[in-house]
Amino acid sequence: MVSVPRTRPPYPEEFRREAVALVRSEGRSIRDVAESLGVSEQSLRGWLKRTQLDAGERHDGLSTDQREELRRLKAENRRLRQERQVLVERFGGGAPAEGLPRPGVQGGGDAAA
User: Fold this and answer.
1) Are 54 and 62 in contact (CB under 8 A)?
2) Is residue 100 within 8 Å of residue 91, measured between CB atoms?
3) Within 10 Å of residue 23's Cβ, how many Cβ atoms?
């Protein structure tokens, strides 16, 4: 029989903040705090990194605000691509509606050839 690891529900935000505080303010090691709280070192390292990114203490990743903005922009981009595809299909793939560039062509569709 194959055993599939179970995923655990996310830890509450307050729990994460308190765990990070034990490392930052009390100077305890990540290993020590992780073992005492029963979480993986990898999880605790991730929470610590996120806190440092959000505080501007490190710059090797995206802050929570930046990640949310990226998520929002990707969703908007996906929606706009779908809307554009509907317009292209509606107008038969010929000359696009005014102001819409043709797929794969730089600029607008009204440029002289």
Assistant:
1) no
2) no
3) 19
